[in-house]
Amino acid sequence: MILIIHRGAGESGKGEIGGNCIELQSSKSRILLDYGAPLPKRNEKQDKNTLKGILNIPGLYTETTKELPLTDIIISHSHQDHYGVLLEKAVKPKIRVSRLLEDFIRISASNRYKTIPKEDKTDYFTRYVSFNAGINDEFQIYPYPMDHSAAEAFSFEIKVDGKTILYTGDFRNHGHKGDTLFKRFKERVGKADILLTEGTMMGRDDTRIKTEKELMSKIEKISANYSGHIFVLCSFQNIDLITSLIAIAKNTQRELLLGPYATLILDVMQTRMGWKSKIPSSKIPYLKILPLREEFKRLRIMFSKDKDYKEILDSFKPGSWDSTLSSKNKYIIPITSSYLRWIAPKIKSFKDSILVYSMWEGYLEDPKFYEIIEYFEEKGVAKTNLHVSGHAYIKTLKEVVDKTDPDIIIPIHTEYPEKFKELFGDKVHTVKNGEEIKS
Ligand SMILES: [Zn+2]
Ligand SMILES: [Zn+2]
Predict the structure, then answer these.
(1) What is the CA(349)–ligand 2 centre distance, in A?
(2) What pLDDT sits at residue 119?
């Protein structure tokens, strides 16, 4: 078995976060784990017309006769830095995702041309059900659903050529479903020859707020102290936070205003998973859908031929702006940077309101967030940063190492790979992008 990290390797001294792409070779064929877009560098110009992050891997875009066939690309979760480049240009291998993962990738696409193909190019795997990949099914893969800030995330246990590799993807155990999912993971997972683990929190482990529950109670307290609106700048894929905000709205007799894209995510989860998702549906009385014409238009065009999503979108009945903003009570409003477009003309008073910034603080340097934050500052709105990480703390990484008892630990998705050596000693191999590891 040969393992190559094409991008995202925790190379000593210059690790990077995101853009993951890992190749595994058996004696007969090759597969890829994730094909992520590298996170944009500071001050980098975004050109919509150039293909970003394309990797030159034989068999990815053209048939290869010199190398073993590249048969499958398996995606761990619905964050751009793990699937993004998949959408840049049609790939040859089969794409392996869960049904919900495909949903999130489709819903988040910026237009209908940049999305994953439907037809026979994709194949679904299911939580806790082993599946095969490779030319003769020589890769046996077991998908563990994990807690993460994306709504659907997996770790994979892969058996090939008598070896076991555990790829953690991105994960944590301090979200709303953290305890349950991590407990189940630890109950089943066995020894791994190679542990390929994320290490985002290496060097960032000193966060103030440790769990989603803590975050929820902090925001709820703030709700009591401010009589105006509570604006929450966040990612709409952060389903734990959105669920918390819905619960806070109920507990504090406020209404929650949600855009159509965020509402679609909620209802797709409901439709696919039913009660098991523990996700409130958009039909609860204290949730109002924002009448955002542009956002509705984009989604309707994208899904005009997609029956499932179209039905959900058609069931949304937003009122007029006047009726949406008519409540005497103030609102909780999850927002994104582009929402300044309607906030500026529609929100008349910011009296006693607060802006909760609930994303990784690194994004604060992105000009698109800066603009909206500046706007709130000008309006004299109070601001607070309250965020809980989507990634495992060191304590949790130690539990994974204890449980899988790996011979080799390879850090990925980390800025501080050398910290792994301090913690786990000689078992840790920091590798370079493109380096071959034989096992
Ligand atoms: Zn990531
Ligand atoms: Zn992620």
Answers:
(1) 36
(2) 65
Residue 40 is given by DSSP the state P
- Which ligand is closest in space to the CA of residue 18? 1
Residue 122: which pLDDT band, with cuts at 50, 70 and 90? confident
Domain count, the chain: 2
- CA 106 to chain CA centroid, Å, is 13
Query: Is 181 in the same domain as 266?
Result: no
357, 409: one domain: no
- Which residues lie near ion ligand 2 (Cβ < 5 Å)? 79, 170
Q: Measure the CA–CA gap between 102 and 123, rounded to whole angstroms.
A: 10
Which ligand has an atom closest to residue 146 CA? 2
- Domain with 295, as residue range(s), is 212-385
- Ligand number with the minimum distance to the CA of 148: 2
Distance 140 CA to ligand 1 centre (A): 24
Residue 317 CB contacts under 8 Å (≥ 6 apart), including other chains: 289
The CATH number covering residue 284 comes to 3.40.50.10710
Q: What is the pLDDT of residue 51?
A: 63
Q: Are residues 216 and 196 in the same domain?
A: no
